[in-house]
Design a protein that fits this description.
The protein has helices at residues 2-9, 13-33, 43-78, 91-116, 118-128, 143-160, 164-182, 189-195, 202-208, 226-230, 252-255, 258-263. It has 275 residues and is an all-alpha fold.
């Protein structure tokens, strides 16, 4: 465990970039060979839109990284946060607790609030408007949402008291988990169900992308499924019944055109099936 910690203490930016690109490439190949849904779409055109949003997320996180680094350095030096208050058993337990807490504040809570606050939902809506969920969909976030998510991650670091190596580890696992759960693949149902007791499985997350309530407002987790199960936001439906998208924006001219997607947060709020 100590070797892993040492690696993330000094992980090069190149390695982080390779993990992001490598994950997309691997899941892209798998979903192309054995897709769960056989979409009638231009996979490259769809990927181009989602990779544009991936690029804006990278730029925003890079530009704001000094805030995250300084926050982690501050809480570590001053022993601020939840982790310094807990008894230290060993590095493995310490890491798992830290990752669980970061996943709560940086992913679950951020995601939950985005669904509950109308102004924030306007930005998150771009993610849900995708009717062709594949591995590139995982990073389909409006630039405004990328800033919102960054703010929650920074808040998480401050409350949890996470050292920077743990933040890097969390972000790396988060990227891979996102690519995995959005990939157009399906695991054997029993295996998927078993995984969902510990981590967010593909079926569990894809239910969140069903186009209608109450399923849209459930399964908010990113890496770990524990928060949905503890806080009553876990839901289940048969994978074959899932319809991707969001009922207010099912028009392909909007959800598959970059210029339209960028404008959605600033348009009038719609009621379901207004189109």
């Amino acid at each position: 465990m100590n070797e892993i910690i040492q690696y993330f203490e000094t992980i090069p930016s190149l390695h982080r970039g390779l993990i992001l690109a490598g994950g997309i490439a691997i899941f892209w190949l798998i979903e192309s060979a054995v897709p769960f849904f056989k979409f009638n779409y231009n996979k490259w055109q769809h990927a181009g839109i989602n990779l544009f949003f991936t690029a804006t997320t990278i730029v925003i996180n890079f530009a704001l990284a000094f805030i995250l680094v300084n926050t982690a350095d501050y809480v570590t030096k001053n022993h601020i946060g939840i982790l310094p208050l807990l008894p230290y058993w060993n590095s493995f337990i310490y890491t798992i607790i830290g990752l669980l807490l970061l996943d709560f504040f940086g992913a679950y809570l951020a995601h939950y609030v985005e669904h509950r606050v109308k102004f924030l939902w306007r930005f998150h809506l771009i993610h849900h408007s995708d009717t062709y969920i594949d591995t590139t969909s995982g990073n389909r976030h409006h630039p405004g949402e990328s800033v919102i998510r960054f703010a929650f991650t920074t808040l998480g670091v401050l409350i949890v008291g996470s050292p920077m190596w743990m933040v890097f580890m969390y972000q790396t696992l988060s990227v891979v988990a996102t690519q995995f759960t959005h990939a157009n693949i399906c695991l054997p149902k029993k295996l998927d169900q078993l995984l969902s007791y510990v981590i967010v499985s593909p079926d569990m997350h894809k239910i969140h992308h069903h186009y209608k309530l109450p399923y849209t407002d459930s399964n908010y987790g990113n890496i770990f499924s524990i928060w949905d199960r503890l806080l009553g936001t876990f839901s289940y439906m048969e994978r074959e019944k899932i319809v991707y998208g969001i009922d207010t924006h099912m028009n392909p001219k909007e959800n598959n055109v970059l210029s339209s997607l960028l404008k959605i947060p600033f348009e009038k709020t719609r009621t379901p099936n207004e189109d």
